[in-house]
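re: ur question from earlier - yeah i can do the single chain one, its not a big deal. heres the input i used so u can compare w yours
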Amino acid sequence: MNPHSSPVSKRLWERNEHRTCSSRSSAVMSQSLPPVCRERRRNLVCGPGFASGGRICSPVLWLLLPFVAIGLLALNLVAYAAEPSPGSVTKDGARPGGILWPADGMIVNVKDLGAKGDGVSDDTAALNAAIKQGCGKMSVLYFPAGTYLVSGRLGGHGKSFFWSYLQGAGRDQTIIKLKDNCPGYQDAKNPLWLMSNLEDQPACKCWVNKASGCNMAFDVQLNDFTLDTGKGNPGAIGLHYICNNTGGIKNLTIRSGDGQGVAGIDMRHPWPGPSLIKGVSISGFDYGLWIKHQSYHDTFEDITLENQNVAGILNQQHPISIRRLVSRNQVPAIINDKPEGQVVLIDAELTGGKAGTCAIINRGSLYLRSCTTTGYQAVVEHQGTVLPETTVDEWFSQEWGSLSPTAKRSLNLPIKDTPELPYDPLDQWESVGKHADKKSGDDWGPAIQAAIDAGKSTVYFPRLDQGGYLIKSQVIVRGAVRVIQGCGAAIKPDGKALAGKAAFRIDQGTPDTVFFEKFTWENGEQNHIEHAARVLVMQQCRWQRIITAAGCGDLFVDCWGGSGTFTVPQKVYARALNMEAGGPPKLINQAADLWVLGLKTEGDATNIRNLAGGRVEVLGGLIYPAGGKLERVPGFINEGGAMSVITTTLWANKTAFQEVVGGQTRAIPDSGRFWSYVFIPDGEKPFQK
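and the output i got, formated as tokens:
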């Protein structure tokens, strides 16, 4: 192996060579040592005395060589122990050496199709070839570390990114950069994107001769890279993006080299959402985010916007939920431009405002909590009226809906951040495919169990040529494993063979947190995961159904297409929850604290049934039955538990909320575009900033 073939291997090679040098002090000047050792040793011991290799060496220092060697070895071991392993996450979130991915866990590596990533070669054709070959196949398209220089758009050539996972090595490792002063990007009135996951034509026959929209951009995931639109490109859009049902963006930087450009992320194509856009930084452009259309809904968290020319976010009709927005702008951080639009914003820092400008201009529905500003005249200009405060503890443009005497505020459940997914070195990844000989007929359960019990920290599912992983025998998550990486795999539980058991059971083990990522869970009526121990984190998964058991820890679900039944006390944090079903209630909460940032639903079933032992807070969303018998059941049922809900609707259930308190049943009818409800039992703590 060439020791200089990658930054990771080069560093490891140099580290090993340094150990070799340090451990051979008795032969320090021997010609048998590698040249690098001889050179390093000369640098260490040379001074006035003998001539050696152009240096002067003192014979006195020879007596000190054993002590020098021992000291150097000790220092080297300390440095080696302190250095993060490749793929691990440091305190500031960086990953030395970048995120690595196994070859059998991806559909294509862009460098295998000719991309250089050297910052000099034009990689446009190679990257588009990789996109056309790899996208739409529910697998990882991997961009290794490098700077990929391009001269035109990526994607949008009649081939969509739908069911696609674009994975970089890290936002500081994988950079896709547009050439400066690039033809095609000079007219802001006719903008062109750097990257787009949209087709030029409608994605399915149902939209032919109709509006050029689509709600079938399923499970589009873009993770861990940077898009740079360069300098002298005033017509550039960083990313033209749409995603439906599940998927989203995580850990992306989008930047303009000189501040010019139309938008960092353009989400104006009908109809975006639901998706989770998290850990995104946008610098420059007229708008950081430009979003449009009444449906569906998108969730944002940990967003940084700076140096926009017109507004940080321009929202036109869309419902959006945002937590932890940091805006550093002279212009408004948010313009909620249309009456149908709703913005739910919590924990925001809006700084740098120009005197006489408000941080938020609102012409629709707006909910604020824990928002601070500096420089601006005020936090909000609402319907043409400036509200004088520069800090908001809690404020809602709508009236809270209530059926019993209660405080008119959100439930304000405590919030925890989702633990960061660790990327271990590849020698700590165990392939399920390695244990294929342990399958029982077509049952992958024993093979998955063997991979989990192999002692590695990450278990991954290699890409199958066809089909998914059928499970007939329950898999127990235990031991040393902390990450179960799907790489886009489909899990197919056989409900009859499992006889009522969940496909996976989270049990005791050494790590206190277990992660699942990049899975599709089929057979939606089947319980997929029984959460019986430890903290469970699920992200970028779809259609999983989770049940709980005594002993379970906190549950975090980022981008959740699925549902759950919560029967024991625990904390549940759901970001971008999408539930689609008719029949019985989609989610039942008996005893948990359930916090939801962004809820989108389909189907006429009750969305959440909350019992007296449960507490539920929903911060923004869209209730959209999309047919069915709208008069059949209420949208939400609260049977004496604490509950607050803020959402928007389209053609929703005729009864919005049904409340059962003290033996009395009451109901709130559908009130149009905006719904809200609150019931906080006596004794709940009041809101605190």
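The two ends are 57 Å apart (CA to CA). not sure if urs matches, ping me
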